[in-house]
């Protein structure tokens, strides 16, 4: 069986403090960190035991995981398993990258989000360049607040042509709705912005969530995705595999990349191919001439 697991343990702390995020600058107690580590260890053992399957794992923590050595080691450990096809993680890319040498880089994928209020652009670009030189496929991205538009354009100009820069449309909490000009501006940076700027109709639609893609928490509770709370089982139960079957989506819409890419009718697996978890399209999509130099690079 082919199975993709989105793992989200109890870790919900972050070294950054984005004002729109509830996890910013939150610190765990030593006991909470120990629990997160123990949960992760149990999950790793479960993946290691599934030698009859082809497994991909995507770490989608509430906060920032890659600043902790046990997550870095987990990625490395998983990449060395013959039955693990892909290991990806969402990160703010603030961590050192010395642990990457312990990974099979060709199996690693990084979804790196740039937070301009917390990291200098030059450092973020340097981190992406380091990933490239280490042979790690990665995407870079930003939250599409209008106040970040100039910074997104500047980042697009400084990133390598081979690095896809996505913009996550702000569907709630935006200062004001996007105008057609705003949409055109973000689309010039990220040609797939119009795809993300939509809540895709999903009710009753076929989605791989709950069949070959699952979301798993620290207790092993499995759900079809991060967006539907109802559990479908627990991965540590001996009969868990019986829980995996086709399930039409139970939500009206799906508006997040890590969800809607698994809906059949959107055919986004054709756009992203094997880079679907770390959000890297099969072909470079953007054109440098589309991003006009509105500002000089600041740093
Ligand atoms: S870097 Fe991510 S997890 Fe950390 S505060 Fe910002 S949005 Fe939240
Ligand atoms: S379409 Fe989205 S909300 Fe529905 S099951 Fe799939 S991932 Fe979950």
From TrEMBL:
Q: What is this protein called?
A: Radical SAM protein
Matching InterPro entries: Aldolase_TIM, Radical_SAM_STM4011-like, rSAM_sf
Organism source for this protein? Myxococcus llanfairpwllgwyngyllgogerychwyrndrobwllllantysiliogogogochensis
Q: Which Gene3D superfamilies match?
A: Aldolase class I
Tell me the organism's taxonomic lineage.
Bacteria, Pseudomonadati, Myxococcota, Myxococcia, Myxococcales
By its UniProt entry, which SUPFAM superfamilies does this protein fall under?
Radical SAM enzymes (SSF102114)
Which NCBIfam families does this chain map to?
Answer: rSAM_STM4011
């Amino acid at each position: 069986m082919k199975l993709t697991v989105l793992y989200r343990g109890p870790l919900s702390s972050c070294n950054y403090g984005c004002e729109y995020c509830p996890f910013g600058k939150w610190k765990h107690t030593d006991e909470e960190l120990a629990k997160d580590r123990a949960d992760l260890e149990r999950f790793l053992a479960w993946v290691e035991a599934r030698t009859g399957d082809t497994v991909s794992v995507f770490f989608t923590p509430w906060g920032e995981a890659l600043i902790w050595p046990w997550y870095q080691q987990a990625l490395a450990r998983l990449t060395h398993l013959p039955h693990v096809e892909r290991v990806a993680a969402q990160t703010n890319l603030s961590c050192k990258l010395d642990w990457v040498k312990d990974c099979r880089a060709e199996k690693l994928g990084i979804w790196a989000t740039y937070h301009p209020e917390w990291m200098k652009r030059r450092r973020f670009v340097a981190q992406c360049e380091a990933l490239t030189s280490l042979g790690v496929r990665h995407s870079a991205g930003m939250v599409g607040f209008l106040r970040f538009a100039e910074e997104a354009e500047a980042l697009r100009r400084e990133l390598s042509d081979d690095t896809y820069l996505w913009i996550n449309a702000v569907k709630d909490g935006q200062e004001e709705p996007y105008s057609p000009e705003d949409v055109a501006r973000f689309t010039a940076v990220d040609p797939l912005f119009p795809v993300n700027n939509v809540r895709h109709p999903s009710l009753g639609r076929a989605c791989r969530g709950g069949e070959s893609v699952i979301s798993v928490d620290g207790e092993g509770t499995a759900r079809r995705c991060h967006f539907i709370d109802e559990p479908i089982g627990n991965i540590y139960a001996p009969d868990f595999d019986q829980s995996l079957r086709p399930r039409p989506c139970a939500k009206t819409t799906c508006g997040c990349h890590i969800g809607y890419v698994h809906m059949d009718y959107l055919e986004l697996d054709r756009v992203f191919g094997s880079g679907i978890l770390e959000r890297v399209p099969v072909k470079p999509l953007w054109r440098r001439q589309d991003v006009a130099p509105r500002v000089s690079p600041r740093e």
